[in-house]
Amino acid sequence: PEKESKKENLDKNQPIEIKDHWAEKDYENGLMESIFLNDSNAKNEIIDSFNVKFCKDDPDKFINFKSFELYIEFVFNKKDTLSELKQLLKENPNNPKLSRQLGLIYEKIEEHGYAYKHFSLAFENSSETKIKLNDLSKAAKNYLKNGGENYKKFIYQMIDLNIDNEYDSKIFSALSTISKDIKNDFLYSISTEAYLIGKPLDHDNRFSLAYRYGEIEETKLAYYHYRFLNNNQKDEDSSYWNNFGVEASNLELNTISV
Question: Are the CB atoms for 175 and 189 separated by under 8 Å?
């Protein structure tokens, strides 16, 4: 119902107008909106304008924009765009964005083996370390969901990428996600604690860690993180205070728990 309501509101807006100052991201946003509204005329105008502005000297940009279009068509309109994307990848086997879009679609339909395969391809063909880490994290997640057990190989690959320790927080975040998926509490706790040193105000991850500490009866650690959340929250969140009180009670700090 919420999505239908949003769509009705968008229909009342002015038609999508391409601006001279649009950068590539603006074109992606415009394309996404036109697909969401099923406005084929606007979609075609955006694609044509993008091609003229960006693709004359860089044909890869056309392929990347096309792959984005096919992915959004799948997400918003449930169109079966897999065959088109696979054909594009067959014609451009070293394009990481195509592999990534296919990985995202396979992940959405819970074909985790294929998702792992395509995120791995994206990882191999990407050049930027930050993007490679994201692809590797996605590959690891789908590998584990597909029944794989050798999670250590992903850890070693991440360490190899982080020669200058520039991406510590990203790696610790990825390790936290992996270890949570495989239910390895020791690895989950140390990787998340390490991540929170660099990102102390990531309340969502801190809350998840505190909650897990409570489940495995690491009461003092749960108490510490809930207290941090209560002391640093911008908006009052009763769940923080409630869980803080529970852990205080478990530590027999009855005055605090009340």
Answer: no
SS3 45: helix
Residue 144's contacts (CB-CB under 8 Å, 6 or more residues apart) are: 151, 178, 181, 182
| DSSP SS3 for 166 | coil
User: What residues in the chain have per-residue pLDDT under 70?
Assistant: 1-14, 163-165, 234-258
| Residues making up the chain, counted from first to last | 258
Q: Which of 157, 84, 165 is nearest to 126 (CA)?
A: 157
Count other Cβ atoms within 10 Å, centred on residue 219: 17
- For 59, residues 6+ apart whose C-beta sits below 8 A from its C-beta are none
Kindly report the pTM of this predicted structure. 0.72
In 3D space, the residue among 169, 175, 190 whose CA is nearest the CA of residue 141 turns out to be 175
Q: How far is the first Cα of the chain from the last one, in angstroms, to the nearest whole number?
A: 41
Classify 86 as helix, strand or coil: helix
- Which residues does 164 contact at the CB level (< 8 Å), separation at least 6? none
- Which has the closest alpha carbon to 7: 109, 77, 80? 77
| 162-176 per-position pLDDT tens digit | 766 677 888 888 888
Give how far the C-alpha of residue 145 lies from the chain's centroid of Cα atoms, to the nearest Å: 16
Q: What is the pLDDT of residues 30-75, one digit of tens each?
A: 999 999 999 999 999 999 999 999 998 888 999 999 999 999 999 8
Q: Kindly tell me the burial class for residue 76, based on how many C-beta atoms sit within 10 Å of its own C-beta (0-12, 13-18, 19 or more).
A: middle
Closest CA to 65 of 46, 78, 79, 82: 46
Look-up of token digits 């696979």 = 86
Contact 88, 98 (CB under 8 A): yes
